[in-house]
Every structure is written in structure tokens, then in C-alpha cells.
Amino acid sequence: MISLKNIIKIYKIKKGKHVVALNKVSIDLPDKGMVFVLGKSGSGKSTLLNILGGLDRAEKGELIVNGKSDRDFKQIDYDTYRSTYVGFVFQEYNLLRDYTVGQNVAMALELSGKKPTADTIEKILAEVDLSGYFDRKTDELSGGQKQRVAIARALVKSPQIILADEPTGALDSVTGAAILETLKKLSKKCLVVVVSHELDYAATYADRIIELSDGKIVSDLSKQDSGSEGFQKKDNII
Ligand code: ADP
Ligand code: MG
User: Fold this and answer.
1) Angstrom distance (rounded) from CA 123 to CA 125
2) Which residues of the chain, if any, have pLDDT below 50?
3) Is residue 39 in contact with ligand 1, taking CB distance under 6 Å?
4) What is the pLDDT of residue 238?
5) Which pLDDT belongs to residue 237?
6) Across-strand partners of 223?
7) 128 and 95 Cβ atoms separated by less than 8 Å
8) CA distance 16 to 131
9) How remote is the CA of residue 81 from the centroid of ligand 1, in Å?
């Protein structure tokens, strides 16, 4: 389980001015499921995701991973956390161009110290519905297929958390929905946190929706256990 406790993140901008990107944010996230973080541009979504993933550090507050607070983390603990625990997916795909799909996954495997066998790569490609794309150049893929390769690269670590920052931001709505279907499938086995500003997607795919405004959580809703009829406020029904 992963939690944030009273996170305050301040960015210094020029002339002594600063922006409070996150203002006392606390959340407990489950081990599985699909959590959406919604909010307008500038509300702190990416900052929240980066702190959850150990890519950035807060001025105040704690990141707690399986009961261990990052107050007790050394630099190597952050590195280990990022490289073994968390898979990142971004809007821009971040693939190695001029390489094939298989080579992209192979390099991600090597980076995480695993052996890039054809069998392992095929299995990972199958998880993102890219079976048979091993030898395709990434330049020749559609946006949706590129995003699938990016998810495949994130999966090589067998991450416990997938953090996806606007993964559908560059895609049309049908392709975006297909990517969310894939992430939803993966969320049966690990936690998937998706940053988005599209309420429609969240209403369809989320198990929980956290809304940020000006660096604060303004609502936190969970899907009712009984099915898909709606969301209820965490702890008390609306
Ligand atoms: P979102 O992802 O919801 O659009 P961000 O988390 O990127 O929002 O940004 C939250 C706030 O922090 C915004 O006001 C933004 O301008 C500011 N911010 C984000 N990153 C930086 C940075 N590296 N330096 C200065 N300000 C930043
Ligand atoms: Mg952002």
C-alpha cells in the first residue's frame, strides 16, 4: 500500500515568488484498482503523480510505501522504488525511435536488469494486445499502438503501481478508450493511477475518482460495490 500524508509541494519561481502546487494532500491508495486523478490544468495532478512515483520530492509531508516513510529513505531507496516498484506512462510515449517494438521492450528489460528473451517480450506484448508487432518499427505505429508499447515498457518491471500522466491526451476518443481498457485490465493485478481531465473516461473506467483544485483534494469518490450505478463519497454516502 502507498500513502501520502500532508504533502506540501512548493515550486520556487523567479523573483522570490513561489507556487504551492500541492497543499496538505493526504491519500491512501489500495494495492489494486483504477484510480483517476482529475482536475483542471495547473491543479497539481502531475506534481501529485511525480511525488507518488518518487520522481519529485515534497517540501513537507511523507510518502509511505508498505509502511515505510520516505523520511527514512536514502537516495538508493528512491532509486529502488522507482526502478522496481513503479511503472510510468506519459502522454508523449517516450519510445526509442528507429527501433522496433521488440527492441524497445528489450531495452527496458535490460535497464531493469532482466534478460530480454523473445518469449518474455512476446508475453509482455500480448498483455497490451500487441502480439505480432515484435518487428514493427515504432515510427510506423499509430498513436494508440505507440502508447501500448510505452505501457509494455512500463510492465517489464512487473510494477506494483502504474502511474499514467494523461495517457490518452494525444489520442482520439476511440483510441483513448481502448488504451484505458488495457489499463483497466492491468488494474486487476496492480494499482493504476491515471491523471486525466476527462470526466467521461473517469466515470466509465475509474474505481475511484480524486479531484484536485488549486493543489487540494476537493473530492474523493469511490464506485459503489454494488455495481456501476455511481460513485459515493469515501466514508460517507452523498
Ligand atoms: P497539472 O498537471 O494539474 O496541470 P502541475 O502539477 O503540472 O498541474 O502544476 C501545478 C502547479 O505547479 C502549476 O501552477 C504549475 O505552474 C506549477 N509547476 C509545476 N511544475 C513546476 C516547475 N517545475 N516549476 C515551477 N512551477 C511549476
Ligand atoms: Mg499535468
Assistant:
1) 5
2) 236-238
3) yes
4) 38
5) 41
6) 231
7) no
8) 53
9) 23
